[in-house]
Amino acid sequence: MPTSSKPDRVSAMYSIIEQVKVTLPLYEPETFICGLKGSCMGCPKKLLEMVDSELTYWEAAMHRGVIPQFDEIRRFGKMCTSVKRALQKNGLLA
After folding, report:
1. What is the C-alpha to C-alpha distance for residues 94 and 92, in angstroms, rounded to an integer?
2. What is the pLDDT of residues 4-45, one digit of tens each?
3. Is residue 3 part of a domain?
4. In a domain, 1, yes or no
5. Domain encompassing residue 26
6. Is residue 4 part of a domain?
7. Euclidean distance between the first and final Cα of the chain, in Å?
8. Are 72 and 8 in contact (CB under 8 A)?
9. Are 83 and 51 in contact (CB under 8 A)?
Protein backbone atom coordinates (compact mmCIF):
# COMPACT_ATOMS: atom_id res chain seq x y z
CA MET A 1 0.00 0.00 0.00
CA PRO A 2 1.63 3.30 -1.05
CA THR A 3 1.90 5.98 1.57
CA SER A 4 1.33 9.60 0.69
CA SER A 5 4.04 11.89 1.90
CA LYS A 6 3.24 15.25 3.38
CA PRO A 7 4.91 18.33 1.92
CA ASP A 8 7.78 19.90 3.80
CA ARG A 9 7.12 23.21 5.55
CA VAL A 10 8.56 25.37 2.77
CA SER A 11 6.47 23.58 0.12
CA ALA A 12 3.38 23.93 2.30
CA MET A 13 3.91 27.69 2.68
CA TYR A 14 4.58 28.12 -1.05
CA SER A 15 1.37 26.19 -1.75
CA ILE A 16 -0.64 28.54 0.48
CA ILE A 17 1.00 31.58 -1.14
CA GLU A 18 0.09 30.34 -4.63
CA GLN A 19 -3.51 29.68 -3.55
CA VAL A 20 -3.72 33.19 -2.08
CA LYS A 21 -2.39 34.77 -5.28
CA VAL A 22 -5.00 32.91 -7.33
CA THR A 23 -7.93 33.39 -4.93
CA LEU A 24 -7.59 36.89 -3.48
CA PRO A 25 -7.72 40.04 -5.63
CA LEU A 26 -4.49 41.42 -4.15
CA TYR A 27 -3.66 43.91 -6.88
CA GLU A 28 -7.02 44.68 -8.48
CA PRO A 29 -7.91 48.41 -8.31
CA GLU A 30 -11.56 47.90 -7.34
CA THR A 31 -10.51 46.30 -4.05
CA PHE A 32 -8.57 49.40 -2.98
CA ILE A 33 -11.59 51.62 -2.43
CA CYS A 34 -13.47 52.21 0.78
CA GLY A 35 -17.17 51.47 1.09
CA LEU A 36 -19.69 54.29 1.05
CA LYS A 37 -20.68 55.62 4.47
CA GLY A 38 -18.97 52.79 6.33
CA SER A 39 -20.89 50.04 4.55
CA CYS A 40 -17.98 47.61 4.50
CA MET A 41 -17.24 45.06 7.20
CA GLY A 42 -13.51 45.16 7.76
CA CYS A 43 -11.62 47.45 5.43
CA PRO A 44 -10.84 45.41 2.28
CA LYS A 45 -7.95 47.70 1.42
CA LYS A 46 -6.27 47.24 4.80
CA LEU A 47 -6.98 43.52 4.89
CA LEU A 48 -5.43 42.97 1.46
CA GLU A 49 -2.43 45.14 2.38
CA MET A 50 -1.94 42.98 5.48
CA VAL A 51 -2.06 39.77 3.41
CA ASP A 52 0.27 41.24 0.78
CA SER A 53 2.73 42.30 3.47
CA GLU A 54 2.83 38.82 5.02
CA LEU A 55 2.99 37.16 1.62
CA THR A 56 5.91 39.35 0.53
CA TYR A 57 7.69 38.74 3.83
CA TRP A 58 7.42 34.96 3.53
CA GLU A 59 8.48 34.88 -0.10
CA ALA A 60 11.61 36.89 0.75
CA ALA A 61 12.30 34.97 3.96
CA MET A 62 12.07 31.57 2.28
CA HIS A 63 14.24 32.83 -0.58
CA ARG A 64 16.86 33.64 2.09
CA GLY A 65 16.54 30.11 3.50
CA VAL A 66 14.21 30.74 6.44
CA ILE A 67 12.00 27.71 7.10
CA PRO A 68 8.54 28.60 8.46
CA GLN A 69 7.44 26.88 11.65
CA PHE A 70 4.16 24.97 11.78
CA ASP A 71 2.45 27.67 13.85
CA GLU A 72 3.54 30.36 11.35
CA ILE A 73 2.09 28.34 8.47
CA ARG A 74 -1.15 27.83 10.40
CA ARG A 75 -1.37 31.51 11.37
CA PHE A 76 -0.78 32.69 7.79
CA GLY A 77 -3.37 30.26 6.42
CA LYS A 78 -5.91 31.25 9.07
CA MET A 79 -5.35 34.96 8.39
CA CYS A 80 -5.86 34.43 4.65
CA THR A 81 -9.05 32.45 5.28
CA SER A 82 -10.39 35.23 7.51
CA VAL A 83 -9.58 37.89 4.91
CA LYS A 84 -11.28 35.82 2.21
CA ARG A 85 -14.39 35.54 4.39
CA ALA A 86 -14.43 39.32 4.98
CA LEU A 87 -14.08 40.00 1.24
CA GLN A 88 -17.00 37.65 0.56
CA LYS A 89 -19.14 39.53 3.11
CA ASN A 90 -18.26 42.79 1.34
CA GLY A 91 -19.24 41.32 -2.04
CA LEU A 92 -15.73 41.48 -3.51
CA LEU A 93 -15.47 37.70 -3.85
CA ALA A 94 -18.08 35.19 -4.94
Report:
1. 7
2. 788 899 999 999 999 999 999 888 877 766 655 556 667 888
3. no
4. no
5. 9-90
6. no
7. 40
8. no
9. yes
